[in-house]
Amino acid sequence: MKKFTVLLLVIAIAVSLIGFAACSSAPAASEAAQTNGEFKVGLECNYAPFNWTQTDETEMTVPISSGGGFADGYDVQIAKKVAEGLGKELVIVKTEWDGLIPALLSKKIDAIIAGMSPTAERKETIDFSDPYYTSELVIVVKKDGAFAGAKSLDDFAGAKITAQLDTFHYTVIDQITGVEKQTAMETFPAMIVALAAGKIDGYISELPGAVSAVEANPDLSYVQFAEGSGFETNPEDVQVAIGIRQGDENKDKMNEILATIPQDEREQMMEDAVARQPVSQE
After folding, report:
1. Which of 39, 79, 105, 273 satisfies CB 3.0 to 4.6 Å to 49 for a cystine?
2. Strand partners, 36
């Protein structure tokens, strides 16, 4: 009977030691998971030069998590720097534009790096990092079209103009007196097709997107306005930043990472993205 009691005591001590060892290793495992975890970034992969999809893998691309090719573009390069700074593995989650914020809120993605502007309306729902790019608004038109020689917004009276759905771009169309505002479209490739077919006379775009569209479609051009002749915007309307959930603990770290990228390097990254983009988009 005494031997049995001693045996039970030995077993109990052994079990407690195993439990203690497991508990002691838990923090290290948790720390490793945090360091080596995934950084899921949502973007359209369809808005060159900010982001696009291509079939071939290069040193600049990142595989799209759902398959169907590789992602590249200015946003992707920014995402790579942020993921590296956070000590996480970058995962690209291809998401339709109007699904980006819902995906972020439902925690399907950790951040939006998709040429998104930190507008006041969006800030009611999500938070943003410091800007990582600042641009200007232009109007993409047909190179030989009636509005190719436009110099000011007044020159677009009577023009059929549109912009991407659920963007600030669509709201500024109202600043054009006499414009024929068309139904918003879901993607930039769709607007390019509509413009080429003569269904619209032009669409609103950020300058890099316009340059990219013209590079890929020589029959297009864009109207860039002199100061005071173009759209009236707030600074945040023409900036792009990382969209994150409100209260994200990594916000300060993301801003620190972005601050390490000099302005001249950012401009070079954009120039390289324009030069590297595929000739045509999906």
Report:
1. 273
2. none
Q: For residue range 214-232, what is the model confidence (pLDDT) as tens digits?
A: 999 999 999 999 989 999 9
Q: How many residues in the chain?
A: 282
**Assigned CATH for 37-134+237-276:** 3.40.190.10
Class at the top of the CATH hierarchy for domain 137-223:
alpha beta
Range(s) for CATH 3.40.190.10 in the chain? 37-134+237-276, 137-223
Show the tokens assigned to 93: 């989650």
What are residue 141's DSSP bridge partners?
Answer: 221
The tens digit of pLDDT for each residue in 159-213 reads 999 999 999 999 999 999 999 999 999 999 999 999 999 999 999 999 999 999 9
Residue written as token pair 């390069």: 77
